[in-house]
Amino acid sequence: MSNLFRQQTKLSVSMMALLAAPLGFGGSALAQSAPTAKPDDTAEIVVTAQKRTERLQDIPVAAAVLSSSSIAQNHVSDLSDINRIVPSVEIKGTFNGRVPYGIRGISTNANEGAIGLTSGVSIQVDGVPVPADSFAANTITDVQQLEVLKGPQATLGGRTASAGVINFVTYAPSEVTKFGFNAMLTNDGEHHMDVHGSGQIAPGLTGSISAYYQHTPYPVYNTTLKEHSNADSKGGRIKLKWQITDALDAQVMAHYALSTSSGENFVPVYMTPGAYFFAAPVGLTQSVMYPGINVAYGNTQYASHTVMGSRYEDKDGSLVLNYHLGNGSVLTSTTSLFRENQDQTQDIFESNVNWATIFQNFLQGVGAIPAALNQPFNNTGHFYGYVNQTTEEVKLASDASRPFSYITGFFYSDMTVNQASFRNWTLNPLAKTNISTTQNYAIYGRGTAKLGEKMTLVAGLRYNWDKIGWNVTQYFDPANGIYGSGGYGQGGYTWNLKDSSSALVGDAAIQYKPTRDVMVYGSYTRGYKPRAFNTVHDFASTQSAPSASDLQFTGATKRETIDSFELGLKSSLLDRHLTFNLAAYYTKYNNYQAQLYNNSGLIAVLVLANADARTQGVEGDLTYVRGNTRFNLSGAYTDAKFTNFPGAVCYPGQTAAQGCNVAANSQDLTGKPLPSSPKFKLTGSLQQTVPMDTFNVLLGGNVSYRTTTNMQADQNPYAVQKGFALVDVSLGFQNKAQTASLTFFVNNLTNHMYYTNLEDFFASATSANLVIGQPARDSHRYFGGRLSVNF
Question: Whole-prediction pTM value?
Fold first, then answer.
């Protein structure tokens, strides 16, 4: 155990003692693990993402909950698969890079240089936030339940939950011995294996353990190296829970994961016909850049000598202390330590162009290329470093069954993202270290008052204070076109920028329950996202202070403020075999931190810009569970747009007739839709068990549909994913005890090609409009089998 962990443990115990001492209560145990819903009782699903165990149908928040069996049935193997089963969610890929998250049309882009930015969707594991720069939640394993809270979750979700929360609930220790094993194999080479178990180790000591390995191929093919892109993940988690006294218990968790990938995740899908890649005299045509590649929608190929890939290694742990006070109150301390080592190699243009020859011709009469930059095919970028995070939360939760109950607490987090970047390429060299630091302090409280049997009022406040820092050292001198004295890693130029901000946010809701199983609610949430630096920016000078042009891009963006209104209905009908939930919302984002690619330079660079935006819509879900039948239908109508965004950058090649002020390279996006926000998404699933004499037959089918959406905020017409539907079917066999099953499945039955992301990332104002796309894992038909054993 590290010294830091010991220090954090002492801090946890001390803070708990300070909070508990004035109360002077005796102890009575209160179970913290979430109860499991009965197979044909849809109303008893519980969630923990609001810092206590609550019945899903009782909380005034639109939410979706997936059990481990639902995750398996819907073939959810990575984070982006949630797109198919939770219509309000849009996640643009999880392979070989950072993940852009979105809920209700509010989403982000992603770029390896843009470190330290909050995504707006708080990704949590057992209620502990995962850094936005991390790869830790991309692979879904050892998950007992997946919870999605839609819309801003300001009071309890914190600074990173301006659009919603996705919480992974992992397997917990139990006194009853449990065991589970799952294995999967597909015709295209995907294979998964995971195992988990829990039970009593000794009197007062219980534990759980899980381990997994998975290999996932992707439909991206390198024609030069003749290999498909693929990813491998392996890891494990251990939890030990010690019932120290009747009033005090402690749980320690240790987790390790290693994810590696080989191959590119993006491929070229559009290039302006007849245009040149780069301006004359380089003037590369499409046939020169991508010989033999059909650069069109549907392409899944690229050609590169570079062996691209990534390596992410996670080591994290936590300590949870629960002190059970009188009257059902619980004082909880959660301490977590997280570290992820990252290493990634990218081919900038996914091309086999011999850059040395091209640029020797380009520079004839100008001067020779420095030997360090004169590489035939070396146009790669290297990014490596680490993400460190420490969090501490102390909360006091009273008995929720009382007429007035509350949750109050303190939260602290300290995160550092340290990244070294190197690109040894003639036209756009890069050599720098990039460090982003974020400290957050918060106090919060939420109270629930029951006004009789039918009316309930909920109100909460949270005070946040954020301190952000950005330290960047550039070893390449752009003013003189050379590396600093002494070469890479020496003689660099360093800038330090700092900023701090605070905010008071909160929420209020009123609930009315005419019956136990019908509830209507109305809520208001005031949220925010703190200021942020545009950490992807490369400084254009070697001055000791940023220039005016630098500050245009690096200055902290304004704080984003959010006002959200929601009306909802939650109901359980037909003796609680049927649930029907409906929510309508309107959310306004002032100074929304939009992320766009600025193509005014040689290569497009991700930048931040403030705009005003709003999203409004209606969501509904219906679930019927009875006997051997389970049916689910969910839909979301989302209308998300910019309400004020003049001066946004043009998309590459945009003309004056298309709305671009060519001289200023700007357009007005006011009234335009937000990126990656399809107007309508619908998903349905049916699972039917057919009892036989000696076994059960399992029939399953899933259908998901979404309408057309533009993946980029700049409205690039060639970054549009057209509407489509996906169909998955399955046939399984289960023993009568329902402890083992063998299921055969076909994913994407109609073999429909689609992309999880489309970007104009490589395009620039001096070149063609070049769009790249990321083919989805299931963008082609494949089939396989899955074995599950649980007892």
Answer: 0.88
Among residues 235, 248, 251, 250, the alpha carbon closest in space to that of 172 is found at 251
Measure the CA angle with vertex 329, ends 335 and 46; round to 5°: 75
* Whole-angstrom distance, CA of residue 146 vs CA of residue 123: 11
CA 616 to chain centre: 22
DSSP 421-470: EEE--SSS-EEEEEEEEEEEEEEEEEEEEEETTTEEEEEEEEEEEEEEEE
Question: Is residue 495 in a domain?
Answer: no
CA 696 – CA 687 distance, rounded (Å)? 12
d(CA 523, CA 529): 20
Query: What element of type H or E holds 181?
Result: strand 178-186
Q: Considering the domain boundaries, does residue 498 fall inside one?
A: no
3-state secondary structure of 710: strand
When the pLDDT of each residue in the chain is averaged and rounded to a whole number, the result is 84
Domain count, the chain: 1
Contact 687, 73 (CB under 8 A): yes
Domain-located, residue 679:
yes
DSSP3 helix / strand / coil % (the chain, rounded to 5)? 10, 55, 40
Residue 272 near residue 653, CB atoms below 8 Å: yes
* Confidence band, pLDDT 50/70/90 cuts, at residue 457: very high
Say if CB 410 and CB 332 are below 8 A apart.
no
pLDDT tens, residue by residue, 471-497: 888 887 665 666 665 455 556 778 888
Is residue 360 predicted with pLDDT exceeding 60?
no
Handedness of CA 350, 355, 361, 367 (dihedral sign): positive
Query: 331 with 16: CB under 8 angstroms?
Result: yes
- Which phi-psi region, left, alpha or beta, contains residue 577 (left: φ > 0; alpha: ψ -120 to 50)? alpha
- Pull the structure tokens for residue 727: 């169909």
Strand order across the beta sheet in which 267-271 lies: 267-271, 770-775, 755-759
Burial 726-739 (b: 16+ CB within 10 A, else e): bbbebebebeeeee
Distance CA 548, CA 554 (A): 10
pLDDT of 438 reads 93
Separation of alpha carbons 202 and 209, rounded Å: 15
Phi and psi, residue 10, nearest 5° = -60, -40
Q: In CATH, what number is assigned to the domain containing residue 138?
A: 2.40.170.20
Strands 605-626 and 578-598: antiparallel
Residue-number span of the structural domain to which 630 is assigned: 3-486+503-790
Contact indicator for 81, 675 with CB cutoff of 8 Å: no
DSSP 8-class letter at 538: P
**Residue 289 in contact with residue 282, Cβ under 8 Å?**
no
Tokens found for residue 201: 């180790």
135 in Cβ contact with 417 (< 8 Å): no
- Mean pLDDT (whole number) for 629-642: 95
Candidates 507, 545, 516, 529; CA nearest to 440 is 529
CA–CA distances in Å: residue 628 to residues 36, 65, 68, 691? 18, 20, 18, 8
pLDDT band of residue 783 (cuts 50, 70, 90) is very high
161 Cβ contact list (under 8 Å, min separation 6): 120, 121, 122, 149, 152, 153, 154, 527
Q: The tokens 């059902």 sit on which residue?
A: 328
Question: Would 451 be classed as within a structural domain?
Answer: yes
Cβ proximity of 468 and 498 under 8 Å = yes
Check: CB of residue 547 under 8 Å from CB of residue 541: yes
